[in-house]
Automatic annotation (TrEMBL):
GO terms for molecular function: outward rectifier potassium channel activity; potassium ion leak channel activity. This is Potassium channel domain-containing protein. Belongs to the two pore domain potassium channel (TC 1.A.1.7) family. The lineage of its organism: Eukaryota, Viridiplantae, Streptophyta, Embryophyta, Bryophyta. SUPFAM superfamilies: EF-hand, Voltage-gated potassium channels. InterPro entries: 2pore_dom_K_chnl (IPR003280), EF-hand-dom_pair (IPR011992), EF_Hand_1_Ca_BS (IPR018247), K_chnl_dom (IPR013099). It comes from Ceratodon purpureus (Fire moss). The keyword Transmembrane applies. The keyword Ion transport applies. GO terms for cellular component: plant-type vacuole membrane; plasma membrane. It comes from the Eukaryota. It is found in: Membrane. Residues 104-183, 228-297 form the Potassium channel domain.
């Protein structure tokens, strides 16, 4: 017994030391244990990523869709929104402009070399061979077609046919870029509206700030309009100075040119006038096209703004909850509500949602209702076998 008592007495200090170390360790863990996230942050985190997904900041935001996802992820973690940076959109815009300029230069260079190498003959009022070739290429590409210079031989006519369709292809690429620009603007506006509705506390104040998108569209349209007026004035001055036209004839030819009508009764006939026209015709037609693009953007921005405000601010009714309840459990989760609102503003269709749910069900191998790394690995192995 004495030996046992001695052993027990020897263990008491050791146990006390372990308890003290355990308490100290628990205190350290308690100090470094992350505080629980607010309910809204936890819900939004579930919307922005699944449990097995990496943080969205690791995704390379090389596309507008990934940039919007990164924007939502910042809000989900309670971070303030990044200041509106003009460099991302302008960078993309400058890249498109740079590619268009390169394509244009190649197009004009090929046309110019072809005129000299193939000895293509043009019929009409001639000035300088180089100036006439560039002038004819610009008039052809912009579909102005004055008719003051026309191909004369069979080879020249065949080359012109190929040259015209190549120019049409270049214009088509530019127009498709303009259409994509409008679509991206609509998507951006909708994401901002959802962000302001569910991520911000000062709701009314931020809505006023968001109206700056519409104001910015109006300003861009105004700047493009000023550029159009400047091209009108420059064109009329050049026609009156170098071509000796009257004010009415100059205004008439400018209108016919920038709208690419090109009736042919009036045109640039002097060498100085054609040198000016090489740069002016291209820039003026692009400015007019850009003005109408911004005009369409402004109208679309206003309409999309109104639709988003109506969809996000109208009172939610019991019938809305019933329609938003996708799984029929009698309650509507945040994800179901967001999907319902997106369908309401016409950004996604029911067929899109069903396709996504089918893909989710195919990945959810254990039918747990959630996705993890093992689900992805198993589904990959099943596909390979």
């Amino acid at each position: 017994m004495d030996s046992n008592d001695g052993a027990s007495d020897g263990l008491h200090p050791l146990l006390e030391n372990c308890r003290e170390q355990g308490s100290l360790m628990e205190g350290l863990l308690e100090d470094h244990r992350p505080s629980p996230k607010p309910l809204r942050s936890r819900i939004l985190s579930r919307l922005c990523r699944v449990r097995s997904a990496p943080p969205l900041e690791t995704i390379n935001a090389s596309s507008p869709q990934q940039s919007r996802i990164k924007h939502l992820n910042r809000a989900a973690r309670g971070l303030p929104p990044p200041p509106p940076s003009p460099f991302q959109e302008e960078g993309e815009g400058m890249s498109t402009i740079f590619k268009a300029i390169i394509a244009l230069l190649i197009y004009l260079l090929v046309g110019l070399l072809s005129f000299f190498m193939l000895e293509i003959e043009l019929e009409g009022t001639a000035t300088s061979a180089t100036v006439d070739a560039l002038y004819f290429a610009i008039v052809t590409m912009t579909t102005v077609g004055y008719g003051d210079l026309v191909p004369k031989t069979v080879g020249a006519k065949l080359f012109t046919c190929a040259f015209v369709f190549t120019g049409f292809g270049l214009v088509g690429v530019l127009l498709s870029g303009a259409a994509n620009y409008l679509v991206e603007k609509q998507e951006k506006l909708l994401v901002q509206k959802i962000y302001l509705k569910y991520m911000r506390k000062e709701h009314k104040k931020e809505l006023v700030v968001d109206d700056d998108e519409v104001v910015a569209a109006h300003w861009k349209m105004l700047v493009a309009g000023v550029a159009v007026v400047a091209h009108f004035v420059a064109g009329m001055f050049a026609l009156m100075w170098w071509e000796g036209m009257s004010f009415i004839d100059g205004f008439y030819l400018v209108c016919v040119t920038v709208t690419t009508l090109g009736y042919g009764d009036r045109s640039f006939r002097t060498q100085a006038g054609r040198i000016f026209a090489i740069f002016w015709i291209l820039s003026s037609t692009l400015c007019v096209a850009q003005f109408f693009l911004y005009l369409a953007e402004s109208r679309t921005e206003e309409r999309q703004h109104e639709i988003a405000c109506w969809a996000l601010h109208r009172p939610t009714t019991p019938s809305d909850l019933e329609a938003a309840d996708m799984d029929g459990d009698g309650v509507v989760s945040a994800a179901e509500f967001v999907i319902f609102k997106l369908k309401e503003v016409g950004k996604i269709a029911e067929e899109d949602v069903q396709d996504i749910l089918k893909e989710f069900a195919a990945l959810d191998y254990d039918e747990s209702g959630t996705l993890n790394v093992s689900d992805i690995h198993i589904s990959t192995l099943v596909k390979e076998t």
